[in-house]
Amino acid sequence: MGISRPMTVSPSAEPDAVDTQRVRDASAIALRNLHKRFGRDAVALDGVDLDIHAGEFFTLLGPSGCGKTTLLRILAGLEAPNEGSLTIGGKDVTTTPPHLRSVNTVFQSYALFPHLSVHDNIAFGLRMKGVAAAERERRVQEIADFIKLGALMERRVNQLSGGQRQRVALARALVCEPDVLLLDEPLSALDAGLRNQLQVELQRTQKRLGMTFVFVTHDQEEAMVMSDRIAVLDGGVIQQVGPPQTVYEHPINAFVARFMGHVNLFEIDSVSGDRVTTALGQLRLEQPLAEHERHGMLLIRQEVIELGPEVPEGYNALEGVVRERLYRGSRVEYRLEVDGVVLLATASNLGQRLHAVGDRVTVSICPEDIVRLDA
Ligand SMILES: Nc1ncnc2c1ncn2[C@@H]1O[C@H](COP(=O)(O)OP(=O)(O)O)[C@@H](O)[C@H]1O
Ligand SMILES: [Mg+2]
């Protein structure tokens, strides 16, 4: 059974290998037409349909107030939907109380007992469940080794760093062996270096255990680096669901595009016959157009813009001026002005001469790299 899951994987096992045998169908989640209102007019969720696969690292991404926590609390059973249904492992749990769901939650605020030791914090859930002492000790030790907390077991939680506390919170949730682990912005209180490290650790832990993780964040880079799939939410409505690369490279609308960090968005401004034209400085971007795409926007990702001098064959070519340069180490960002239009470009820093503010540059864009978005 699940009790031995962490032990069946040696620490040296291939970190990215998913043992599909241990992925339990019991952890597949289906949400249908979920609505949640608070009071009369605060709509937190407005008709959410979603399938989360067993063994998946699934992320809910969106700005503050879009309904992420509400959705997680409904999964946990801490909040009931006004409408709609929820199944976990094919079983309808819409009205099942939290303690009868095989779901555990890790919060941003740790929610640990500060005066108790790491050991006692991890053991707490098992103690509540009445797991016998010997069995409890074995499982606590097992998970502590797995999360690399073995050396800290007797420390009190208030003597730990933020990253260590977050590990304890994770161990405490994992030791109960839920089918589904819910994580509500668990890393957002940590500084950047530690956060990056824990992102990798969390993702490896999830893959090794083959457990379903539903992770919440407002940080699109964090979502991309960790997730198998991402759902982008806005105003209680799911805007797009897909793997990180799809959501980033082919956002479905302007909201998703902006939220994924894109800035070069241009209105389609004239349509004639079966072609659409978008003005960008002196350049007229022309593309064939289907009937339903007569309205909408074009997206030019920062990193597809090439800065001359040569223009590859078939590319659009524009003359621009560098107005601002942001040196980011591995890459350099330029704010360009092209005939009064602002365009952001990212170049990798490969040791070539950097452009300076005021430089005139040739801007090249491959037509295939221009993405059309829904209105
Ligand atoms: N207990 C509550 N009472 C009233 N309004 C709430 C409550 N919880 C959440 N909301 C509202 O529901 C919306 C979604 O909130 P939440 O799910 O916490 O968003 P997120 O986690 O994405 O920041 C917000 O407008 C929020 O103010
Ligand atoms: Mg929240």
From TrEMBL:
Entries under SUPFAM superfamilies matching the protein: MOP-like, P-loop containing nucleoside triphosphate hydrolases
Molecular functions (GO terms): ATP binding
Matching PROSITE patterns: ABC_TRANSPORTER_1 (PS00211), ABC_TRANSPORTER_2 (PS50893)
Keyword hit for Zinc: no
Region (Disordered): 1-20
Assigned EC number: 7.6.2.11
Keywords for the protein's UniProt record, in alphabetical order: ATP-binding, Cell membrane, Membrane, Nucleotide-binding, Translocase, Transport
Keyword GTP-binding: no
ABC transporter domain: residues covered: 29-260
Lineage: superkingdom: Bacteria
Pfam families from the UniProt entry: ABC_tran (PF00005), TOBE_2 (PF08402)
Catalyzed reactions: ATP + H2O + polyamine-[polyamine-binding protein]Side 1 = ADP + phosphate + polyamineSide 2 + [polyamine-binding protein]Side 1
Function: Part of the ABC transporter complex PotABCD involved in spermidine/putrescine import. Responsible for energy coupling to the transport system.
UniProt similarity note: Belongs to the ABC transporter superfamily. Spermidine/putrescine importer (TC 3.A.1.11.1) family.
Subunit structure: The complex is composed of two ATP-binding proteins (PotA), two transmembrane proteins (PotB and PotC) and a solute-binding protein (PotD).
NCBIfam families: potA
The protein, known as: Spermidine/putrescine import ATP-binding protein PotA
Organism: Salinicola endophyticus
